[in-house]
Amino acid sequence: MRHLMRYLARQGSVSELHDPPSADLAMAVVIPCYAESGIIETLSHLQQRCPRNTEIIVVVNHARNAPAWARARNRRTLSALAAWRKATACSVPVQVIDACELPPKHAGVGLARKIGMDAAALRFCQLQRPDGLIASLDADCRVSIDYGARICAYFDAHPSVHAATLDCAHRLQDCVDARHRQAMIYYELFLRYLALGWRYAGLPYAFMSIGSCFAVRANAYARQGGMNRRKAGEDFYFLHKLARERPLAHISGVSVYPSPRMEARAPFGTGQAVSDWYRSGAVGWPVVAPACFDELRRMNVTLPELFADRDEETWLASLAPTLSAYLQHAGIARALPGMYRHARSLPVFRRHFYTWFDGLRAWRYAQRYADTTEIERAVPGLLAALGAPLPAGVDGAEMLLTETRKQFARIGQEATHKERTDER
């Protein structure tokens, strides 16, 4: 409880919702809403998929310098939400935060998500329920039928879990044409390939960083300093901070279905990547070669030697030259003394190492890796290396994605089970 109280005290002003929280509130679902036209449909959809001990917090937001069309749409959204709440007998309460006219320097999806998640954290603090759940969703998403109940049940059954990711499958049926569908298939395959690569290498951040596909306990949210205010990639940075504390769980069978829209509302991310490929005229989607993950795997399995011998030069010489050079350029010589000083055991040393060699550093290494291959060739090989070979007859990117979704969920579930068993 102290983490939650301390965090909220540091925030100063937190949006306090008009209606008091229900005494049995277990989970708040936070939805940023910027110039959306379908938020009422999303809320109606969620009414059937969340239990009564849930509430939904919608954060309607724009910057002071937002374009006129976005401001007008948000005004219509606020009016529509007020009318809908008045006319609808909601089984799941819906709270609305008017976060329009935000400072342009910070306005964006990160700040909007933070405003809603901070409000949820305050609700759980008022209820003296620091283990309450905050789920993050987007305004254009759909979810599986038992979304809310299964998230709550999973966290109830696993009290040591501080945060978890959820299954994700973009709605391919909503693509505007065949090329859009192909772009979305490639992009989702790319996200899964990268997460599977981290898994194969043994890195502690083997998950897809998607802002609509995770849930976190309020006290863990507070311990990590809450959501950041980044205009893009806020989910990546927040989830990786949580993963430094301990591995994230994965709740298999609870699915979120994001929109495949190409609208680029952030400097990078799904919309931008899909739109860029769609307009580029490209045929395939090159990805980093699997050998990159072999090199990172070698680094991971030799960390015990580095900790025991404290011979940085010999350890670096045992790695692939490209990775050794990258680590040296990144400043490992300056970082290691602090790791040794604060680590009396290998698990603690490993945690400090991956706080330094975090997901961003790993991603930058993959970006700079010289060898690439087409994604249709890369994914099957990586799945086979993980002990999850594809069945015979898988042909084409769409069929590959269908099978990869199944294997990805199974691998994530098995890894979560192993981590929970190891903790016991």
Structure described in brief:
The protein has 424 residues and is an alpha/beta fold. 53% of the residues lie in helices and 13% in strands.
What does this structure look like?
By secondary structure, this protein is α/β, with parallel strands linked by helices. It has 2 domains: 2-177 and 201-262, Alpha-Beta Complex (Spore Coat Polysaccharide Biosynthesis Protein SpsA, Chain A), CATH 3.90.550.10; 287-423, no CATH class. Helix content is 53%, strand content 13%. It contains 18 helices and 10 strands. The chain has helices at 2-11, 39-47, 68-87, 109-126, 147-157, 178-201, 218-223, 234-245, 270-280, 291-301, 303-309, 312-318, 321-330, 332-342, 346-356, 359-368, 375-385, 397-423; strands at residues 27-33, 54-63, 94-102, 133-136, 142-143, 163-168, 214-217, 249-257, 286-288, 372-374. It has an 8-stranded mixed sheet with strand order 3-2-1-4-7-6-8-5, with helices on both faces. A two-stranded antiparallel ribbon has the order 9-10. The longest helix is centred in the C-terminal third of the chain and has 27 residues, at 397-423. The mean pLDDT is 92.
